[in-house]
Write a structure and sequence with these properties.
Strand content: over 45%
Distance between the termini: 28 Å
Structural class: mainly beta
Number of strands: 11
Radius of gyration: 17 Å
Largest sheet: 8 strands, antiparallel
Oligomer: single chain
Length: 179
Amino acid sequence: AYPTRHEKDGDPGWVPRLIHEAEDSVTLGFTVTGIGPDKEHPYTLKMTCTARAGHFEDMRNVCVEGGLPGDEIKLGIVISKIPVEDFFIDKESGVMGLWGFQDPLMGWIGMGVMFPAERYLGQDDNANEYCALLRLHQGEWLRFYAQGDWLRGHRFLPGGGAKDWQNTLLKEISAGKLR
């Protein structure tokens, strides 16, 4: 696993750009170069994130290029851990998320990702993050979705637990709703 964060000199370089902006959607693109320890054959990650009117989830497309022919590529999709949380993963449906709070003043929040279940390889969690590993082939685009919720953002409160949040995410991906 090679992180794509840029926190210090020598870390992968990020180039953001606006790809599309309309009244009902906006798409941002990111190219991250210099990923991995092999400086002669580094990886390049390309990613787009699209927010669409009427959708609670945002659509993300990811592609990894470079490296050596035949390299096994695993994409890690992460959710940051928070102090008080209930974590869940449904490997068969392709849903990972948590419900909890980081700061009592903020209140209860939900974070989740929805991904192609057939690409799921396992978890590579660490002390700060949950990480679902997905199979990815060089030069191939993979689509997944991210969604968040804030309990205080609702006029009429839904159920306030992890199971309710998990069911919300499962409904989003059921019957091919996400495209």
